[in-house]
Amino acid sequence: MPQPPRLNAVALISPQNHPILIRTFQKGDELKYHYVAHTSLDVIEERTSGKAKPTECYLGLLYVMDDVAAYGYITPLKVKMVVALALTDSVVRDADVIMIFKALHMSFYQAVSNPFLKLDGVSECTADYSPYQAVGSTKWKRLRRMVDEIHRALGASAP
User: Fold this and answer.
1) Residue (of 37, 97, 25, 27) closest to 63 by Cα position
2) Which has the closest alpha carbon to 97: 65, 68, 59?
3) H runs (alpha helix) in 22-93
4) Whole-structure pTM value
5) What angle do CA 34, 14, 126 make, to 5 degrees?
6) Is the dihedral of CA 68, 73, 74, 80 positive or negative?
7) Fewest 10 Å CB contacts: which of 40, 50, 70, 134?
8) How does pLDDT run along the chain (159 residues), one tens digit per residue?
9) d(CA 107, CA 143)
10) Count of C-beta atoms within a 10 Å radius of residue 133
11) How many other C-beta atoms can be found within 10 angstroms of the C-beta atom of residue 120?
12) Are 147 and 23 in contact (CB under 8 A)?
């Protein structure tokens, strides 16, 4: 039985390229995964800037850096998702990565669909305000909890 992919980090990025959530599961590597998320934006922009409208949300393997493989996904509302998986000797199937992204997309959808989530407070300090800018705020507590649950589900399925 193939080993499931090991999730190192998850990043959700707004259509204006502001981070919504960057969740790392490796202690001490937070800055590394912020870098992975931001460098992935260049590759995502390159793949989606073509003349034809992309019909597929899954962007596939974006790049490999040291011991991490970055995969990308873009929702119909242009929210970008980046998953950093640990490089191992086992083969990572696209179906497994797509399953992770679908779970993340559904978690994000459920978090945004919360009628008590206030995203419309205008910040006075930024000119290009995005409602998704509150990275790490308590507004996204439910989303962080769902991302942690996805990470636990992947880890629990390991033999």
Assistant:
1) 37
2) 59
3) 30-48
4) 0.79
5) 90
6) negative
7) 50
8) 567 778 899 999 999 988 888 888 888 888 899 999 999 999 999 888 876 666 788 999 999 988 899 999 999 888 999 999 988 877 888 898 999 999 999 888 888 887 776 655 444 444 444 444 444 555 677 777 778 888 888 775 443
9) 6
10) 16
11) 7
12) yes
Tell me which DSSP letter residue 98 carries: H
* Amino acid code (one letter) for 67: D
Q: How many residues does the chain have?
A: 159
For residue 111, what are its two tokens?
Answer: 């978090």
Two structure tokens written together for 75? 């929702």
Helices (H), the chain: 30-48, 94-112, 141-156
Taking alpha carbons only, the member of 69, 62, 117, 114 closest to residue 90 is 69
